[in-house]
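Posting this for the archive.
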Amino acid sequence: MQYRRLGPSGLKVAAVGLGGNNFGRVTDVQTSERIIHRALDLGVTFIDTADVYGRGVSEEHIGRALAHRRVEAVVATKVGSPMGDGPNETGTSRKHVIDGVHASLRRLNMDHVDLLQLHRWDGESPIDETMEALDDLVRQGKVRYVGSSNFKAWQLVWSLWSSDRRGWVSMVSEQPHYNLLRRGIERELLPACEAFGVGIIPYLPLAGGMLTGKYKEHETFPPGTRFEHMTRFRDMFVTPRNFAIVRKLEPWARDHGHSLTELAIAWLLARPMVSTVITGVTKPEQLDANVKAAEWALTPAEVDEVASLAPID
């Protein structure tokens, strides 16, 4: 396994990370534990979750699985999404951030998380209030590093500016939706991360399964897949444009001795500022294929060639 620094920090993370969104939603606690242990055995040390995943169940599964292997893992979680109906049970106010971290630590059964990410921008809470709360949590030892998720370029830069002028801890990473079918972050967010040294942690690298080749245009979706049950993913990815791109990418990957899945992950790992790619699995054996992708180092010419087959929409 290849390890990379997370943005400007000294923290090393595996190039291929493990997403926790399926834990408690698709996988039961025993399956989650097998997946996490297999990940660690393969060197997949970065485990990403959020308080809102299963309303805390994902964190509980991770905490149980890491009870005797905590030192092997880099654990990241998120705060800021709604965790209840109350007015203070959402957002990035000082109250919700601090309360949220304490609740996450209880569920994870840990005394600290390695990376705490703001799950999304909160237009109501002052960014200075949020960044000061994050700084306090780091100084208290409950959080090691801080990052953001789903931020726009201006929101990330504003957060960095707030930290810089006050001498508070600063964002080391941003977790955006990024894959070969959705490259919009390359317009503003990726250049901002390059300019300020912020690491990128792409999620949905396989575009909900579109970049595995298992979905065929005008055919019924395979039973049990995301597109069969989740309208959000169908609306996002099932388009004539995306099927046309997949038809170009599949033979390109095959001609280079790899699968489309491996190409999707390897291409992201070759992009600027990408520290680790979040992959979600429902079976332990799926990890092996994802890890194999990290062994493929595309040349700059190959990166550009693939990009030409999947232009920015």
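The chain has one domain: 3-207+266-297. The domain at 3-207+266-297 is CATH 3.20.20.100 (TIM Barrel).
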